[in-house]
Design goal:
The complex is a heterodimer of chains A (about 110) and B (about 110).
Chain A (H helix, E strand, L loop, with lengths): L3 E3 L3 E4 L5 E7 L5 E8 L3 E8 L6 E2 L6 E7 L2 E6 L8 E8 L8 E3 L3 E5 L1
Chain B lengths: L3 E3 L2 E5 L4 E7 L4 E9 L5 E8 L4 E4 L2 E6 L4 E6 L8 E9 L5 E3 L3 E6 L1
Parallel strand pairs in B: 2-11
Antiparallel strand pairs in B: 1-3, 3-8, 4-5, 4-9, 6-7, 7-8, 9-10, 9-11
The chains are: A mainly beta (about 110), B mainly beta (about 110).
Amino acid sequence: DVKVTQSSRYLVKRTGEKVFLECVQDMDHENMFWYRQDPGLGLRLIYFSYDVKMKEKGDIPEGYSVSREKKERFSLILESASTNQTSMYLCASIGGEDSSYEQYFGPGTRLTVT
Amino acid sequence: GEDVEQSLFLSVREGDSSVINCTYTDSSSTYLYWYKQEPGAGLQLLTYIFSNMDMKQDQRLTVLLNKKDKHLSLRIADTQTGDSAIYFCAESLYNTDKLIFGTGTRLQVFP
């Protein structure tokens, strides 16, 4: 069964803390994505990666960084968490011969920054 | 730039048909998608349509694409309470796996 897992479902952090959100996929997919989801704004792309050690900025990369040391793992890092980063974070994995429809999302991590 | 728009809410009676609409701006879209998000869960791909198609039917789901007007719709026949969720449309751009998502439409089904 296809699996994209995220390290935490719920996370509460204090302003200024460094936060790591982990995403792991077991499908040998090349492409992985991090989105944040906010009411009325839909999903907005933060960063994505086409291969190990490769990363590209999405639409809202400010305040975030990513790491892709292994193909199956894509980490999102909040260097110094702020309250406006309170959100639902979704990881996605895309790959396969016809990558246009083989897309899988993790269950999401709801992060609250106090 | 790319933009995908949806209405935020839709309320229907159980057994009726639901139609969720979406408009997009980028004419270079290759695939257009519908995702479903149930409370507390990630996104589940429901169906997709290639940009050179007009219609796709999959059981209770019918996708209509008007490429001239850049309008996409999802029709759910015989809507059930289990269909209550947020529905996102998304487009993929030519030669990329990057997806542009709409704001999501919250479908509420009442008995």
